[in-house]
Amino acid sequence: MIELGKSHSIIQQMERLGVKILGISESHWKGSGKKLIPDTTFYYSGSPESDGVNYHGVAIAVDKTINNNVKHFLPLSNRVCLLQLNAQGRHINIIQAYAPTMDKDDEEVEEFYRDIAAAMRLTKSIDVTIVLGDFNAKVGEGSQTEVMGCFGLGERNERGDRLLLFCQENKMILTNTLYKQPKRRLYTWISPQDKPERIIRNQIDYIMINQRYRNTVKSAKTYPGAYIGSDHSILIADVQIKLKKLVQPKSRTQIDVRKLQDLSVKGTVFQELNENLDTISMQHDAGQVEENWLTIKSALLGPCNKHLKRTKAKREKDWMTEQILRLMEVRQELRDRNADKTKLKELNNKIRYECRQAKEQWLKEKCEEIEHLQTLHDAHNMHKKIRELTGSKKQTTHYLLNECGDIIVETDKQVKLWEKYIEQLFDDDRVNVEDIETPTGPEILKDEISYVINNMKKRKAAGPDELPGDVLQLIEEKHLDKLAHLFNQVYTSGILPVDWLKSTFITLPKKQNAKKCEDHRTISLMSHVLKVLLKVIHKRINKKLEENISETQFGFRNGFGTREALFAYNVLAQRCLDVNKNVYVCFIDYNKAFDKVRHNRLINILKEENIDTRDIQIIKNLYFNQTAEISVNSEISKELKIKRGVRQGCVLSPLLFNVYSERIMAEALEEEVGGIVINGTHINNLRYADDTVLLAENMEDLQGMLNKVIRISEEYGLTLNTKKTKCMIVTKRNNPPEQLIAGGDIIEQVGAYTYLGTRVNSSAEYLPEIKIRIEKARAAFVNMRSLLSARDLGLETKTRLLKCYIFPILLYGVEAWTLNKECEKRLQAFEMWTYRRILRIPWTDRVTNVEVLRRMGKQVEILEEVKKRKLTYLGHIMRGPKYKILHLIIQGKIVGKRSVGRRRISWLRNLRDWFSCSSQDLFKAAINKVRLTLMVANLRHGDGT
């Protein structure tokens, strides 16, 4: 199926032969999902996207006339998939299979049949179940039995016995052995060694149906004359079953904010929306918050429903041309007439050539569109077009597994499973917190609201109130008084409208092949008007709460991020090894930390902070009265009470979680004297949100800290995931393993660990991480090679795509890197590898790197970029007063004794060697912006001083 034009040829044969559903073996499409080509839907299941090769693969092509009857698609493996259709009074289950070939061992064959059995368990006895595909088995001729007819072909083999056993166990019958046919209508495969004088043709493809429905099959035979570009013949069974007439359910009106790009539409919505706001009057009674909200909501939503309704997008034409389709028809005509094989071969070559030309022309046009969008500075649509061309798609969960490991495919049952999971996850015996008697907090100003609305991100999904955030930016300044009035009513009374207390959970897979509810992340979609209010509150309380958050917390804080956490960990580990001091590390992994925050504890913590009581009251009422519904395949669950956890997707959640986790660590480690001592300061933890690293100089101290953290965390509702929590000893020596225990479980000691997306190891070496980053960047390049190696895309645009999509993957965490000569060589080699593929230079041409750079019109830049970023980052942290902990780590004194001989390459030594400066000179230059800028500029000239 990966051959150009193959899918179009198959569609042509489906139309010619009147086939509505076609099973395909050896599709060689990676991943799973569905493709529309051009009106026929291909449901496919192949090897994982992460695999380097696309072995096997199965697919089912469904004609557009019955595609609406498809209920479920279940990709079980790259050999088995299930498609379920609605029929009258029952379902039709189509199981497409591709069995291992004869050279594979029996265990692989049994695994294949286990996959089919898993699909069969999802069917009901009343359903029509059809199993079809290439089984690489010969059942042979013989007398009629309950599982086969007497019109097989050839002699039975062992795989044929296994197939018949499957039929007996599942009460299936082989339909293409039931009817007397000429042998040319029985064989399904022609051997490559087949010759007129030595015919080698076998029956190894079958269509099976459950025995109770054998009378629905009117015929089953092959069509060897149909050209499908395969050594297999197309096998067709005429099955007569009435499909269910479907009534399309009424769905919610979807608002398409992209229509606001049309200035006339935007002007109309702007005018009507503000006219509506001009005519409404606000109620002043504190108890009429709900009425005021519904009035404003109606005024804003009316023009949206009228002018911004989502319309079905017109499908873009693919690269296939009418001329090629006509050539395919001619090829079939030649085949029907048994034309000379030479003519047929010439026509095949011509079709392949025309397919390549058409695809290249289509790609050229798309590249021109990307170039045009770039000149217009339309980044959103440009990157959208790039994703379309590179085949980037969202991960899809086709089915779920329940607690017993059973596969759940029906949407209504998945909804029930999610409801049960959400109720258990967010259930808590919380104690209500008393309201605050003395309200404090200034009224919300129109300027605060205006600032937040003007800085809102566009094209964000709407919450349960269906009001998009983009529309709020159309409100005239004079009408923001109405919104300010509503906000102040809510702020002073503490009463929130019902719509604001609701949220819709959408689920995102946390990993590939996520099959259980816990393998997903739930994101809350909430009212954008509520988000405006919460953003105003966030701006008021953020600075006050930040004052009490430890310097070792790098997550969700202004000016901090993963690079600070990685820098702190890596430089600290290196400096300890320099003085022969081992570092005992515990990487703590909590069980769904954000979802386990106890609301009463959170509110009590906020009461102890120096923030206005009205802000606390809004947060309390929001968290204690919130409900949520979950969206599964466009089906909405019942409303569920959320009794714990911070709302992922809410602007306040990161700040609230930081305050909560800070209290846990403060209570657990406030009297702790362990950790790494630098200039008399104890550093015993580094944190990025809930990713916590405990640090100690020996295992005894680490065990003591871990025990305290576990005890206090459990008091606050957080529990450790002992399977994912790991410990590591960073050392120069091969020390014997030491035990770390958590809750009776022994924590696994590892030699390497993935921390914040980078691979850290027990020797504090960076070469393994550099190798990983290069391979990830290489995989991203290969995924985009259709664009990056396209002849018709300009070199400037390719270079921009390289910098935008590939180099950021390579350079993630670069500020914390420590490079030796081998690392530098590998980075330079990868850079040249990308340039050679962009220029389409084969290795046989023996083009030098100097010539490659000349053609690219640039210098080697990856290593230069690394040097620039590390130096710039040093200046960034040295000039920032908020980075005191990083100053301490890089400049402070760690007690210990260095080994005799040459010192290890360190983070700071990289800069000393690159810029020919001492450490003191580097620190002085770092705080001088002008000198630092000159040093960066001189890099290009080979002089960093």
UniProtKB/TrEMBL annotation:
<dbReference type="InterPro" id="IPR043128">
    <property type="entry name" value="Rev_trsase/Diguanyl_cyclase"/>
</dbReference>
<dbReference type="Pfam" id="PF00078">
    <property type="entry name" value="RVT_1"/>
</dbReference>
<keyword id="KW-0175">Coiled coil</keyword>
<dbReference type="InterPro" id="IPR036691">
    <property type="entry name" value="Endo/exonu/phosph_ase_sf"/>
</dbReference>
<dbReference type="InterPro" id="IPR043502">
    <property type="entry name" value="DNA/RNA_pol_sf"/>
</dbReference>
<dbReference type="GO" id="GO:0071897">
    <property type="term" value="P:DNA biosynthetic process"/>
</dbReference>
<dbReference type="Pfam" id="PF14529">
    <property type="entry name" value="Exo_endo_phos_2"/>
</dbReference>
<feature type="coiled-coil region">
    <location>
        <begin position="330"/>
        <end position="361"/>
    </location>
</feature>
<dbReference type="InterPro" id="IPR005135">
    <property type="entry name" value="Endo/exonuclease/phosphatase"/>
</dbReference>
<dbReference type="GO" id="GO:0003824">
    <property type="term" value="F:catalytic activity"/>
</dbReference>
<dbReference type="InterPro" id="IPR000477">
    <property type="entry name" value="RT_dom"/>
</dbReference>
<protein>
    <submittedName>
        <fullName>Craniofacial development protein 2</fullName>
    </submittedName>
</protein>
<feature type="domain" description="Reverse transcriptase">
    <location>
        <begin position="489"/>
        <end position="760"/>
    </location>
</feature>
